[in-house]
Recover the amino acids of this structure.
């Protein structure tokens, strides 16, 4: 892995001069030269993007969505820090069909209006939001959040390099073994769905 240096990124294509802390995660900037070709190959698959999404979701959740990370840029090569939050949306959900409801079971009963089953349960659900065009000065971000943001960027690059070293072609087996998901199941190979060209981490 090459050295990571935090930078600033225009959050709205420089049209409002708003910038936020960011890392340039373009493959040629952060991945070791001997692994770049393999990382580009792996970026054509959904699985690597899924792993990145999981890392970002974990970061967002750990920061209670007040601070969120996301990819930005024409090719999606920048990991950018955003302000955000969450607001309550629904009070219940049907465990049968997943239909959400703005009323609680206590208010209207557990009969689902969508599937007709008595399967609604009270569960407070949240919608998250991002203030994407808002400028964020480095001094406005708590030190522990900046540290966690750097850790996230490093984890994304290390994940990409791990895939490049351990996944042979488009076979998923090594990744399943790595995450202890096999548990006695023999997997010969799994094919990846191929994405449109995407040259970012």
């Amino acid at each position: 892995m090459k050295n990571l240096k935090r930078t600033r990124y225009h959050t709205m294509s420089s049209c409002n001069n708003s910038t936020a802390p960011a890392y340039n995660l373009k493959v040629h900037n952060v991945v070791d030269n001997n692994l770049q070709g393999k990382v580009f190959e792996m970026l054509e698959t959904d699985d690597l993007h899924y792993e990145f999404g999981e890392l970002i979701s974990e970061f967002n959740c750990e920061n209670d969505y007040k601070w969120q990370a996301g990819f930005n840029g024409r090719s999606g090569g920048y990991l950018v820090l955003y302000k955000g939050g969450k607001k309550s949306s629904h009070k219940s959900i049907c465990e049968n069909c997943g239909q959400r409801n703005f009323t609680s079971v206590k208010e209207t009963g557990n009969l689902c209006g969508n599937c007709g089953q008595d399967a609604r349960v009270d569960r407070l659900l949240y919608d998250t939001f991002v203030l994407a065009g808002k400028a964020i000065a480095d001094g406005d971000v708590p030190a522990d959040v900046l540290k966690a943001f750097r850790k996230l960027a490093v984890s994304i690059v290390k994940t990409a390099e791990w895939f490049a070293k351990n996944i042979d072609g488009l076979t998923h087996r090594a990744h399943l073994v790595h995450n202890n998901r096999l548990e006695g199941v023999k997997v010969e190979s799994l094919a990846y769905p191929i994405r449109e060209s995407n040259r970012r981490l």
